[in-house]
């Protein structure tokens, strides 16, 4: 990595942290709540909005059913929270519903949950950011043409903040989350007081009407189910706490369960309050603003969000509290994506541990976070935002399918978990009938809602999830099979034989240069049984000049010139190695090659292309080990000097970095 790249990385994510600081990066409850619960809490901003949107399709009379739909959603929140309390206690390692399904229903079922959750995490980021941008545009309509650019920019910022580590991201997200809770509470209380004193708030959209055809009983029922399914988006994010138990401070299980209860109580309260104010103020919200009769300039004027309409009705349009509410809502919606930025990398690390995902996902970065998972999630969300043009109504149709797949399999797995305990004589005393009943109810309720959500949303965009999910499942299953095949291939068995007959070394020579002489010096110092220098002669005249220089330099190592009529450097060497193997049997051959070490990124464009291709070919040759002998260019030496100096901030803290040990350059260290 060049100095410019190091400086940019340091500026974005900060100084690397030692592993022993990992415990210090774990979260107390007051920080864990905004980090893990911001998605579930912020979803009350678009959950009621989606519910009102669907009910408005059926006409104003259908809005009278909003309280019943809201009660059903709140009851489901309570059931899911209760079920997840048992999951946190039984499986605190951080796999959440994936681990429950994997252990109790089998790895195939576990991968169904993992596929659903990974898709849902990407959608969480896209939906939260798109909704946040919606609320920003509600306050500043002139920003509507830059909707996609704003959304992509926010995702990049969120990824950068998360790459700095959980403690710093927690500090960044705590204040907006608590400000959102406080502002919505003030909104609800103020609206309630106004209603009780006879001055109920009236939304600007109350004057608009919606033309609808007469609906039959079946159509009314389907509309209510669609409204319930859309309102269930308020449940997203609840699973993040059971997936992120390892990030809590000790006692992890107790702190995670307390945070989960707080999340459930606050989420249900805010959902109920916003629904109540929406009904009192007679809010109308449509997917297409032109469906609202009387909405002027509907083709050019963006429709205010439900939160924006409530703020204008209760606090007054353009008042300071109106802007505080919208700012807090936009911030928490944008930061709600942080739930996914914590859950996705943790789940990815668990999948990598089980062999279902690339091992790079379980590697912690400089700031002790699973940085590769953060980057993958950000790229997926950006792609989704660009494809949908940050359209919230399109994104929401694909949403929550994954989370209810997770809930259903997770609760079913917990039922199997309790039944296994009950059947095991050694653990029968651990069986908890109340917890078992909670998980049975949770399994039935979430499976039923999954069917409802699938039926009502399938043709509106949810079918894409059912197309992507199996592909992701097959990909992860294929990764596991690949890792298994490699593990079986490299594990020693009774037929494994060690010990080669002979030790030969080759130094590849292009021109007689200091890097080549240094590689030759290393090969001589290793004291191989035999040693030779090899040159692939692309240019006959150049090969003759090299041979004369070799003799003039007095080098005693024999130089072998290999003709290369097709101008390929690697093939003559490979043919020569094959001949030696046929003659000498299973000897070990070490090929020494010089390699430039550069200090600037652009130098990589100018060097090492041919040697890189040769290394790749030699790596595929049986019985050959490639030894790279570094030769640092002046730019690399200057970079090393700069890197060994303490940074100003380090010096103040007394944590100046030690200079790296300098490797002596061998300008003429060859053997004669």
UniProtKB/TrEMBL annotation:
It is found in: Membrane. Residues 642-653 have a biased composition (Basic and acidic residues). The keyword Magnesium does not apply. One of its GO terms (cellular component) is membrane. It is a multi-pass membrane protein. One of its GO terms (molecular function) is transmembrane transporter activity. InterPro entries: AA/rel_permease1, APC_K+_Transporter. Residues 654-672 have a biased composition (Basic residues). Keywords: Membrane, Transmembrane, Transmembrane helix. It holds the Pfam family AA_permease_2. This is Amino acid transporter. It comes from Agrococcus jejuensis.
């Amino acid at each position: 990595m060049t100095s410019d790249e190091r400086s940019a990385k340091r500026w974005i994510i900060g100084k690397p942290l030692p592993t022993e600081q990992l415990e210090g990066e774990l979260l107390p409850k007051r920080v864990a709540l905004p980090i893990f619960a911001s998605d579930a809490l912020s979803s009350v901003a678009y959950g009621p909005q989606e519910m009102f949107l669907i009910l408005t399709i059926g006409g104003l009379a259908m809005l009278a059913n909003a309280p019943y739909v809201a009660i059903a959603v709140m009851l489901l929140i309570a059931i899911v929270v209760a079920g997840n309390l048992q999951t946190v206690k039984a499986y605190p390692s951080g796999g959440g519903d994936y681990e429950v399904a994997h252990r109790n229903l089998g790895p195939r079922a576990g991968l169904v949950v993992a596929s659903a959750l990974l898709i849902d995490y990407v959608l969480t980021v896209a939906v939260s950011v798109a909704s946040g941008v919606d609320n920003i545009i509600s306050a500043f309509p002139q920003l509507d043409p830059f909707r996609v650019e704003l959304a992509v920019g926010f995702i990049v910022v969120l990824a950068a903040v998360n790459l700095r580590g959980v403690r710093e991201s927690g500090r960044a997200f705590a204040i907006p989350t608590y400000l959102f809770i406080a502002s919505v509470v003030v909104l609800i209380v103020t609206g309630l007081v106004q209603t009780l004193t006879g001055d109920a708030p009236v939304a600007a959209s109350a004057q608009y009407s919606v033309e609808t055809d007469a609906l039959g009983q079946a159509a009314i029922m389907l509309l209510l189910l669609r409204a319930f399914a859309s309102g269930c988006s308020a449940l997203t994010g609840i699973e993040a706490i059971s997936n992120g138990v390892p990030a809590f401070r000790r006692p992890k299980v107790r702190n995670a369960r307390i945070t989960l209860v707080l999340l459930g109580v606050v989420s249900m309260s805010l959902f109920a309050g916003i629904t109540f104010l929406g009904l009192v103020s007679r809010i109308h919200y449509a997917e297409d603003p032109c469906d609202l009769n009387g909405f002027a300039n509907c083709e050019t004027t963006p429709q205010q969000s439900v939160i924006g309409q409530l703020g204008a009705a209760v606090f007054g349009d353009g008042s300071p509290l109106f802007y505080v509410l919208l700012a807090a809502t936009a911030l928490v919606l944008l930061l709600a994506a942080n739930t996914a930025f914590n859950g996705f990398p943790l789940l990815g690390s668990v999948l990598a541990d089980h062999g279902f995902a690339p091992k790079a996902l379980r590697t912690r970065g400089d700031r002790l976070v699973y940085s590769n998972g953060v980057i993958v999630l950000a790229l997926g969300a950006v792609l989704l935002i660009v494809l949908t043009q940050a359209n919230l109504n399109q994104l929401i149709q694909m949403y929550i399918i994954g989370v209810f797949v997770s809930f259903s399999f997770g609760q079913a797995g917990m039922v199997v978990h309790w039944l296994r305990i009950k059947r095991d004589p050694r653990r029968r005393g651990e069986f908890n009938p109340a917890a078992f009943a909670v998980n049975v109810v949770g399994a039935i309720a979430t499976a039923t809602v999954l069917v409802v959500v699938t039926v009502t949303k399938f043709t509106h965009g949810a079918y894409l999830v059912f197309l992507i999910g199996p592909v992701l499942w097959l990909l992860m299953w294929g990764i596991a099979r690949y890792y298994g095949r490699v593990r079986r291939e490299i594990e020693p068995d009774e037929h494994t034989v060690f010990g080669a007959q002979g030790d030969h070394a080759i130094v590849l020579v292009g021109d007689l240069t200091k890097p080549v002489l240094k590689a030759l010096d290393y090969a001589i110092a290793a004291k191989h049984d035999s040693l030779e220098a090899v040159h692939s002669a692309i240019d006959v005249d150049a090969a003759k000049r090299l041979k004369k220089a070799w003799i003039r330099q007095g080098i005693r190592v024999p130089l072998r010139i290999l003709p290369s009529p097709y101008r390929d450097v690697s093939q003559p060497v490979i043919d020569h190695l094959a001949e030696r193997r046929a003659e000498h049997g299973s000897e070990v051959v070490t090929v020494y090659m010089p390699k430039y070490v550069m200090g600037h990124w652009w130098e990589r464009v100018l060097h090492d292309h041919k040697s890189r291709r040769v290394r790749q070919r030699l790596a595929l040759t049986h019985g050959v080990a490639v030894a790279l002998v570094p030769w640092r260019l002046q730019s690399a030496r200057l970079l090393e000097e700069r890197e060994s100096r303490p940074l100003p901030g380090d010096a103040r803290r007394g944590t100046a970095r030690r200079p790296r040990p300098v490797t002596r350059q061998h300008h003429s260290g060859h053997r004669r």
